[in-house]
Amino acid sequence: MNLKYLTHFSPAGKKIEPAGTPTKHRLNEQITAREVRVVDEKGVALGIMSKNEALKLAESKELDLVEIAPHANPPVCKIIDYGKFQYELQKREKIQKKHQQQQQMKEIRFKWRIDTHDFNFKMRHAREFILQGNKVKASVMFRGREITYQEYGKEILTRLVAALDDIAKVDQEIKSEGKSISVILVPDKSKKKKTVESEQ
């Protein structure tokens, strides 16, 4: 949406947009539609009215008229404190980015000849990584002619997938990568929730 770069003042005269900063939404006089569907600050639908009527209503409440659904017919506008509205949006975006950055790819490596104790030890590590919200890449490594034993490696990864089935799902199926085979697991939120509830 192409908007002019404006310094914006709320009806109370408070500056809430620095000069030279584009707003993400049309507000007040920036709104171009002649008629708008209005929602008040409590979320109550007030129906369709002219832009001027809506602006007067917003001004009487010392709030802003903000276009939140520009492609609706007529556009939907909400009467809100735009400064507070922007703050809440930025807060939500920051939380989302934080969650995205927290997820990392962890790698667990197995030998194709692995005993039960070692398998369980590595499986527990994989479980911890999944419960922390990380992806897990599990690989079985081969050296030289050991590559002919890929079936053993697939069995190990299949066992791992089954062992973590209560909290994880397969993001990338078992596949060969040079002298190794691997599988990628990611947290399954619905499964994790059930597991946590059953443990309580």
Q: Can you describe what's shown?
A:
It is built from five helices and ten strands. A hairpin with a 5-residue loop joins strand 1 (8-9) and strand 2. Helices cover 36% and strands 30% of the residues. The strands form three sheets. It has a four-stranded mixed sheet with strand order 4-3-6-5. The protein is of the alpha+beta class.
User: What fold name goes in the CATH topology slot of the largest domain?
Assistant: Translation Initiation Factor IF3
CATH class of the largest domain: Alpha Beta
Average predicted local confidence, pLDDT = 82
Record the strand order, biggest sheet: 4-3-6-5
Shape: rod-shaped
Measured between the Cα atoms of the first and last residue, the distance is: 49 Å
Overall radius of gyration: 28 Å
CATH architecture of the largest domain: 2-Layer Sandwich
Helix content: 25-40%
How many beta-strand runs?
10
Fourth-tier CATH superfamily name of the largest domain: Translation initiation factor 3 (IF-3), C-terminal domain
